[in-house]
Amino acid sequence: MIDFQSVLTAINEAASNEKERGEIADYIPELAKVDVNNFGIHLIDSQQNDYAAGDSNELFSIQSISKVLTLSMALSLIGENVWERVDVEPSGDPFNHLSLLELENGIPRNPLINPGAIVIADILVSQLENPKEDFLTYVKNIANDNTINYDETVALSEKKTGFRNFAAANLLKSYGNLNNEVDVVLDFYFHQCSLAMNCAQLTHIFYVFMNHGKCRRNKSYLTLSQVKRINAIMLTCGFYDEAGEFAFEVGLPGKSGVGGGIVALLPNKFCVATWSPGLNAKGNSKLGMLALEKLTTDTELSIF
Ligand code: DON
What we know:
By secondary structure, the chain is an alpha+beta fold. It is built from twelve helices and seven strands.
């Protein structure tokens, strides 16, 4: 039996000794206010035992991690029709690049880069009666946690500075791959990205992807085939132009966000989330990557 608590405590100690902590994202001004010295890690195993170390109960902005949750909701609403509007290939480009979108006639490479996530947001805006409210309820239900909420200040901060996302949405619209108004879709998108969670809450939600589509209360949210697809997309596209490096170093499907969170999972075994707001040059948490590399190396657990 692996002593996960000792492993997490050691990872937290190693993180606190790290001098080079990366750069805080400041293109969303509100995110720049966070202290770079935070580090937290939480792991839930398949028996629903929780282990934690560091600032694992501090709330942070989950940002792009939310793209996995909107994809999950869209898949359960319209099934395989999702793939008519977004592809499933890694882009090898940064999350906010637009060049491939034009080259490929408005079909985003995958649902985890910004243009792809904006198409998924458009699907939810079309499908849901009260999109922001209904998506939040979906997330709260999977987590079995009513305290989760949007951070309106972060959403507004991104709305004021999200010029590239406005460009992406307009480009999608010009190709006929956005059915709703740009402002409406981006309002939803900026809100999903602003969701505030801690490491514990993130693992309690992503538990569903390590547990055959069933949440901690054993309610089913996804079919086995949908879980396979989501985990495959996380593995190949979850870290943008660093997806290869993450698979190489860590060996788990996962997803990062510019708020400094990373969540990753080993099907049937565990789900883990880290938070350290300093990012590397590719926009992924610097210490989070190191921590997860240490976790899978020390425990010798990975999908490979
Ligand atoms: O759209 C954006 O730029 C942000 N709301 C989310 C980007 C993000 O988290 C990329 N992940 N590492």
